[in-house]
Amino acid sequence: MFLAIIVLVSPIFGIILADIVGFHEPLDIAAERLELQDLSKNMNWTPLFKYNIPGISPEIGYIISGLLGIAIILGAGLIFKGFVKQH
């Protein structure tokens, strides 16, 4: 229940309030100051680039990304648990 609430409110902090206060990732700021080229658009290896899903609002994409992340971690934990029980 706690994870579901956190996932549902995450767009408030990750998108809405970040835009209001002008928050930028610290590594992005450092890269800009060092005048490094942004290669993320050329080397995009993830289908959820910046937590967005094409055709869906950024807030919903953020929630789906959170749910997918939780599912992956839980799935990996269950697989690991299965291996530990066998040995």
Account of the 3D structure:
This protein is mostly helical and 87 residues long. The chain has one domain. Helix content is 66%, strand content 0%. It is built from 3 helices and no strands.
What shape does the CA trace take?
A: extended
Share of residues in helices: 55-70%
| Number of domain modules | 1
Low-confidence stretches: none
How far apart lie the N and C ends?
32 Å
**Major beta-sheet overview:** none
User: What oligomeric state do the depicted chains represent?
Assistant: single chain
Number of strands: 0
Strand content: under 5%
SSE order, one letter for each helix or strand: HHH
Mean pLDDT: 86
Determine the structural class based on helices, strands and strand pairing: mainly alpha
**Number of H- or I-type helical stretches:** 3
Give the secondary structure arrangement, pairings included.
Blueprint: H1 2-21, H2 26-33, H3 58-86
Helix pairs in contact: 1-3
Summary tags:
single chain; 87 residues; mainly alpha; extended
Summarize the model shown.
The chain has 87 residues and is mainly α. It is built from three helices and no strands.
